[in-house]
Structure formats: structure tokens, C-alpha cells
Specification:
- This protein is mainly alpha-helical.
- Helix 1 crosses helix 3 (65-77).
- It has helices at 2-14, 36-50, 65-77.
């Protein structure tokens, strides 16, 4: 999951202009000033970049950075998805 977490941090900084110093595993997307539209955009971006199917109905500003990274990592590790995350 470390690789996924690092990629998520880079994405938040580069695309969503979040201050890297504010990003922590327990920080919620809302605390990082991502509104509901930005959260959905984040999910869409992650789906496209990792070629996975995240459940958009779970996209919420209440999710932590660690929860989002965990969701992506679990999909990448799922044998049914045909993908495997490098750690």
C-alpha cells in the first residue's frame, strides 16, 4: 500500500494543489479542502490511473487519505481484478 499512498499524496499535491504538509494518513479529504466534486474527480482520476473500479457511491469528504489508499490497494490486490499492487 505504500506505493499507492505515495501516489495518492503526489496526486493530491500536483492535481488538487493540497499543501503536502497537511497530508497525513488520518487527514480527511474534507480537511484537505476537497469538496464533494473534487472527491469524485479524485476517484475518477484514481480509477483511470490504476485501471480499477472504485465505488463512486463511497466517495466522501469524510474519508481519510489512508482509507482511500487502502481501497485502491485492496482492489489492486484482488485476484479477481487481474491486477496486483507493487508494494
Amino acid at each position: 500500500m505504500d506505493r499507492v499512498y505515495r501516489h495518492l499524496v503526489t496526486l493530491l499535491v500536483d492535481k488538487f494543489e493540497v499543501d503536502r504538509d497537511l497530508i497525513a494518513p488520518g487527514a480527511t479529504l474534507g480537511e484537505l479542502d476537497l469538496d464533494s466534486l473534487a472527491v469524485v474527480e479524485l476517484y475518477v482520476t484514481l480509477q483511470e490511473e490504476w485501471d480499477i473500479a472504485l465505488d463512486d457511491s463511497t466517495a466522501s469528504a469524510d474519508l481519510t487519505v489512508d482509507e482511500v489508499a487502502g481501497s485502491v490497494a485492496s482492489l489492486l490486490d484482488d485476484p479477481a481484478s487481474g491486477r496486483e499492487a507493487a508494494r
